[in-house]
Design goal:
mainly alpha, about 100 residues, Methane Monooxygenase Hydroxylase, Chain G, domain 1
Length: about 100
């Protein structure tokens, strides 16, 4: 029962807007998860035509992934690089006149 309760709480927290930003992620897994959630919010904003919001979310995700790469270079580098590439493509798509950060 304790495990089920923990899963429910974790699921609810992940679904709350801004959860990833309420507390500073500490582990590389937490940082990556915060980046992934920010990326998803960017996709949602982009789908709604909210370009500025999408760019902000993608840039936030990019900064988090840079932190993983710098502080934890051995943590799943292929997965991190895959996400970096996806974010870079999204930023280039939304800011064609500027170079993606």
């Amino acid at each position: 029962m304790k495990t089920l309760s923990s899963c429910v709480v974790a699921t609810l927290m992940m679904g709350c807007p801004g959860f990833a930003l309420e507390s500073e992620p500490k582990t590389p897994t937490d940082i990556f998860l915060a980046a992934y959630l920010s990326y998803q919010k960017g996709e949602q904003a982009e789908a709604k035509g909210q370009v500025k919001e999408a760019i902000l979310k993608y840039e936030g995700a990019s900064e988090l992934l840079k932190r993983v790469q710098e502080k934890h270079p051995d943590w799943n580098p292929a997965i991190v690089e895959f996400r970096v590439v996806r974010i870079t493509k999204a930023l280039k798509r939304l800011t064609p006149d500027q170079e993606a950060k």
